[in-house]
């Protein structure tokens, strides 16, 4: 990685005659990027980055008159002691600072935050790059998930359009970021998703049947029992926490889970990964979470999918600083910006992030730069706010699946016939799971009243719940067979609502 | 549970005002822990309360057979300490809870006993540490999350309601969230609109949350211990003005295994003429009003201490109303969509409605943001005299 970044320093004298070293981190312009790349109109330009000016710390406060405090009351000994105390960095709330007679204004900690990549847009290894350790088996597993998710997305997206499910969210364009990061995590790790991470879940072993069952909310939906909107998966057996709709609330929770791992002797070596988007990073919960995690500790990878849009809001209307990565140093977190469309770079960066997080029991921030090719959700039509050509360009020029496939081909791990075979088998299995899930009955009607409060052993279910259940049971008993709409509706549910008809009439 | 004899001891007339307490504090260890002296928002209460037991009474009571006096603060502190000893996964987090011993000294001494990993000072971000508590609970711990006051928990209400309260249901009953949120709730004294609000109705309206509003030291011990052991997210709404108040507790109530069932009310004083339902500090005022009415008019008031707002023990109220035929609710919150409103609605929908001899009535705080100025703040909340007056009018004795 270090060979990728050429560090250039040059010393020059500014008009005031003060010697300043300007530092720039240069990766060179990405190859083969057309000038029209990413053309979504912007309203405000980013401010010119002015990095931290270079100061030389003065070692002896009293060596020359300039740095001598003007007036400090007390005896000479008191004065020196106080100067010493006041000058200690922590006394001033910083980790390391020094006194300076120059006003040092800055709006960036680095002139450029480099974006780490292993493969270029066409899937060739970038000069000087280091390919992470990866077996053929691992690489193909990643590729299988990366190619599976577009097919799943397509089928479920269309089914929403046909009114067969109520809602869906695709992850088109972000396959490398999501699958690459998931592949870097281990079995006992905990995962907090935002909502666009179904590929991460699939890569962890969530079956197509489980996924389809959740989207249809049928009787096999073990994770949410038909109580949650599509894509709001929950899979505790895979360490995948329930997706919550309100943006960024998963972040302080991830900090809490990381803290739990930190203090649990049995879970040393495990790690949390928390996904969020560039829009979520504007929520107060983002700052709350990073603040908590940086102070209280706990192994956590903060994985930002910077896909350029928060629904319709482009990043340029979302923040004026240098992306999300620039916020990591503000919380003292190890931070990296990575090419989110490069599965190998994401894998490599998240592996290193995981190592740092576990070893230091602390948070690490990864900003994956990617592009949301799909619409935000089925409730969105992105052609209203960005050009269709722009989206098309991304699928052609910087397609994460094509890039990774080129790498596989270069290793002779993949060929045309395998590709055809894989896509065909994906299609078959997705359609099979889809058809199966759609036909399955809805969960027991009584599930509506379960799990509102956990009931400890020996406790009883709160009366307010039993009353509602009994009332529904009583009405079903009375009208369930004789009123046509209910008779029809009952048939959609497993046990046809018989499970709530065991009431004792208390709800009447 | 406090015995009837113990209650009457609390009811014993006491001339002690807060001033008397503070002067006595030099000589008594117990009074040194008086809430009104150690809280950052210390204010002198206006009316003399018989429940603010002075040092003399306390010592006398302590020498009694098997019954001691402890403050609500000590009750909460000991409840947390015992649960932390009992279960290693219990820990406390919040602003100022560790080194500063809590803004109201409820977590006093816990840092020394349990260390920094289990008593955690967090950065000042309510949504952050409430969210962390939820996340730690989802990952298998049992956090106790202290809010400096429930007013500040508004910043974290999304984590409490949308995540804490609903995850168990949303996760198909697979992921419980055993977190206890606690802190002072309701009007204190002289802290104005933004620090004087009762959140019982807010959290009480959410299916999935349990809401507790304790009154006595025994309530606090039994219910806080039960809340920490409960598999659900619990909002534990304390009252700042009660922190320094002493209550008699029995040996049983001081035992490590003492638990009170969440969702059960307690009849604090039996009576046959009218039912008064109150919670938190209003139980004090209701009991005092009941005593006045009994002495002056011979009216026997039944006072129910709600203890839990959710689940609401409506059965106890129904039973009482069937006996007394009259119902008045007393609370320190706003009237609209409040705890009293809910109780009245449920009673009117229940078989107890046919037993009512008069329209049920609510006594609540005024429907205005709590004013700061002492003279008008005083008028914004019910007190003993007002409750007594309402009860007399309700029974056509005026």
From TrEMBL, chain A:
Segments traversing the membrane: none
Organism: Kwoniella shivajii
The entry's keywords: Oxidoreductase, Thiamine pyrophosphate
Family: Belongs to the BCKDHA family.
Group of enzyme by EC: oxidoreductase
Membrane keyword on record: no
The keyword Oxidoreductase is assigned to this record: yes
Summary of the function given for this chain in its UniProt record: The branched-chain alpha-keto dehydrogenase complex catalyzes the overall conversion of alpha-keto acids to acyl-CoA and CO(2). It contains multiple copies of three enzymatic components: branched-chain alpha-keto acid decarboxylase (E1), lipoamide acyltransferase (E2) and lipoamide dehydrogenase (E3).
Reactions mediated catalytically: N(6)-[(R)-lipoyl]-L-lysyl-[protein] + 3-methyl-2-oxobutanoate + H(+) = N(6)-[(R)-S(8)-2-methylpropanoyldihydrolipoyl]-L-lysyl-[protein] + CO2
UniProt cofactor(s): thiamine diphosphate
Region (Disordered): 25-44
Pfam families: E1_dh
EC nos: 1.2.4.4
Protein name: 2-oxoisovalerate dehydrogenase subunit alpha
Domain Dehydrogenase E1 component as annotated: residue spans: 143-444
Domain of life from the UniProt record: Eukaryota
Gene3D superfamilies: 3.40.50.970
PANTHER family cross-referenced by the UniProt entry: 2-OXOISOVALERATE DEHYDROGENASE SUBUNIT ALPHA, MITOCHONDRIAL
UniProt biased composition (Low complexity): 34-43
UniProtKB/TrEMBL annotation, chain B:
UniProt key word Transcription regulation: no
Essential cofactor(s): thiamine diphosphate
Annotated catalysed reactions: N(6)-[(R)-lipoyl]-L-lysyl-[protein] + pyruvate + H(+) = N(6)-[(R)-S(8)-acetyldihydrolipoyl]-L-lysyl-[protein] + CO2
Record's keyword annotation contains Oxidoreductase: yes
EC number: 1.2.4.1
InterPro entries: PDHB_mito-type, THDP-binding, Transketo_C/PFOR_II, Transketolase-like_Pyr-bd, Transketolase_C
Family annotation (Pfam families): Transket_pyr, Transketolase_C
Function text: The pyruvate dehydrogenase complex catalyzes the overall conversion of pyruvate to acetyl-CoA and CO2.
Name by which UniProt lists this protein: Pyruvate dehydrogenase E1 component subunit beta
Organism: Kwoniella shivajii
Organism lineage: Eukaryota, Fungi, Dikarya, Basidiomycota, Agaricomycotina
């Amino acid at each position: 990685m270090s060979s990728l970044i050429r560090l250039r320093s040059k010393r020059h004298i500014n008009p005031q005659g003060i010697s300043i070293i300007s530092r720039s981190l240069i990766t060179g312009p990405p190859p083969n990027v057309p000038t029209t790349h990413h053309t979504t109109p912007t309203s405000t330009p980013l401010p010119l980055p002015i990095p931290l000016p270079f100061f030389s710390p003065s070692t002896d406060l009293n060596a020359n008159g300039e740095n001598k405090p003007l007036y400090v009351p007390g005896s000479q000994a008191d004065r020196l002691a106080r100067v010493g105390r006041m000058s200690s960095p922590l006394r001033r709330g910083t980790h390391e600072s020094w006194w300076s007679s120059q006003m040092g204004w800055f709006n960036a900690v680095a002139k450029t935050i480099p974006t780490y990549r292993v493969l270029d847009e066409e899937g060739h290894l970038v000069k000087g790059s280091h390919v992470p350790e990866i077996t053929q088996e691992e690489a193909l597993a990643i590729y299988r998930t990366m190619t599976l998710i577009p097919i799943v997305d397509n089928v479920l997206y269309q089914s929403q359009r046909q009114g067969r499910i109520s809602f869906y969210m695709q992850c088109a364009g972000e396959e490398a970021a999501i699958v690459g990061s998931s592949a870097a995590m281990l079995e006992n790790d905990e995962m907090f998703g935002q909502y666009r991470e179904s590929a991460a879940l699939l890569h962890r072993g969530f079956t197509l049947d489980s996924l389809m069952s959740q989207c249809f909310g049928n009787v096999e939906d073990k994770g949410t029992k038909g109580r949650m909107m599509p894509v709001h998966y929950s899979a505790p057996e895979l360490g995948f926490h329930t997706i919550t709709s309100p943006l960024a609330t998963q972040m302080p929770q991830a900090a809490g889970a990381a803290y739990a791992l930190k203090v649990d002797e049995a879970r040393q070596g495990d790690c949390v990964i928390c996904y969020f988007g560039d829009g979520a990073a504007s929520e107060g919960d983002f700052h709350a979470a990073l603040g908590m995690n940086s102070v209280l500790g706990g192994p956590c990878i903060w994985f930002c999918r910077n896909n350029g849009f928060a629904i319709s809001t482009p990043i340029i209307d979302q923040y004026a600083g240098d992306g999300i990565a620039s916020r990591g140093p503000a919380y003292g977190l190890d931070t990296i910006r990575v090419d989110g469309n490069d599965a190998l770079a994401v894998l490599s960066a998240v592996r290193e992030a995981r190592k740092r997080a576990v070893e230091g029991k602390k948070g690490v921030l990864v900003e994956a730069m990617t592009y949301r090719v799909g619409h935000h959700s089925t409730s969105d039509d992105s052609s209203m706010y960005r050009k269709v050509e722009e989206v098309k360009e991304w699928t052609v020029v910087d397609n994460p699946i094509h890039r990774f496939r080129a790498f596989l081909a270069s290793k002779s791990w993949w060929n045309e016939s395998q590709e055809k075979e894989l896509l065909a088998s994906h299609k078959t299995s997705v359609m099979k799971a889809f058809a199966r899930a759609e036909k399955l009955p809805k969960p027991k009607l009584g599930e509506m009243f379960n799990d509102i409060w956990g009931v400890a052993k020996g406790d009883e279910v709160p009366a307010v719940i039993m009353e509602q259940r009994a009332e529904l049971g009583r009405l079903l008993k009375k009208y369930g067979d004789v009123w046509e709409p209910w008779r029809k509706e009952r048939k959609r549910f497993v046990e046809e609502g018989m499970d709530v008809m065991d009431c004792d009439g208390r709800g009447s | 549970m406090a015995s009837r004899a113990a209650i009457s001891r609390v009811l014993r007339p006491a001339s002690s005002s807060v001033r008397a307490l503070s002067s006595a504090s030099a000589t008594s260890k117990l009074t040194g822990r008086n809430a009104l002296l150690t809280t950052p928002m210390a204010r002198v209460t206006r009316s003399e309360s018989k429940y603010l037991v002075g040092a003399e009474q306390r010592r006398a009571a302590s020498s009694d057979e098997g019954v001691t006096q402890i403050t609500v603060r000590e009750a909460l502190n000991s409840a947390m300490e015992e649960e932390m000893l009992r279960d290693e996964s219990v820990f406390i987090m919040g602003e100022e809870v560790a080194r500063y011993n809590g803004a109201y000294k409820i977590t006093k001494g816990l840092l020394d006993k349990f260390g920094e990993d289990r008593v955690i000072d967090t950065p000042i971000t309510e949504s952050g540490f409430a969210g962390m508590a939820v996340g730690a609970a989802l990952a298998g711990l049992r956090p106790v999350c202290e809010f400096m006051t429930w007013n500040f928990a508004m910043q974290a209400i999304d984590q409490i309601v949308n995540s804490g309260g609903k995850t168990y249901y949303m996760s198909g009953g697979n992921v419980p969230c055993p977190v206890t949120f606690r802190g002072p709730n309701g009007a204190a004294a002289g802290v104005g609109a933004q620090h004087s609000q009762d959140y019982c109705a807010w959290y009480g309206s959410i299916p999935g949350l349990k809401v507790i509003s304790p009154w006595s030291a025994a309530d606090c011990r039994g219910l806080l211990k039960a809340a920490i052991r409960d598999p659900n997210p619990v909002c534990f709404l304390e009252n700042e003005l009660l922190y320094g108040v002493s209550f008699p507790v029995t040996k049983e109530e001081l035992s490590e295994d003492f638990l009170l069932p969440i969702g059960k009310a307690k009849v604090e004083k039996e009576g046959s003429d009218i039912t008064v339902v109150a919670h938190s500090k209003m139980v004090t005022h209701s009991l005092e009003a009941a005593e006045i009415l009994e002495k002056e008019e011979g009216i026997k008031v039944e006072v129910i201490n709600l203890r839990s707002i959710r689940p609401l023990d409506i059965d106890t109220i129904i039973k009482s109303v069937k006996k007394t035929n009259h119902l008045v609710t007393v609370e320190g919150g706003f009237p609209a969509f409040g705890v009293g409103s809910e109780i009245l609605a449920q009673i009117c929908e229940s078989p107890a409605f046919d037993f009512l001899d008069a329209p049920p009535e609510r006594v609540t705080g005024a429907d205005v943001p709590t004013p700061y100025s002492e003279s008008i703040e005083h008028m914004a909340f019910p007190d003993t005299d007002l409750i007594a007056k309402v009860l007399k009018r309700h029974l056509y004795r005026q």
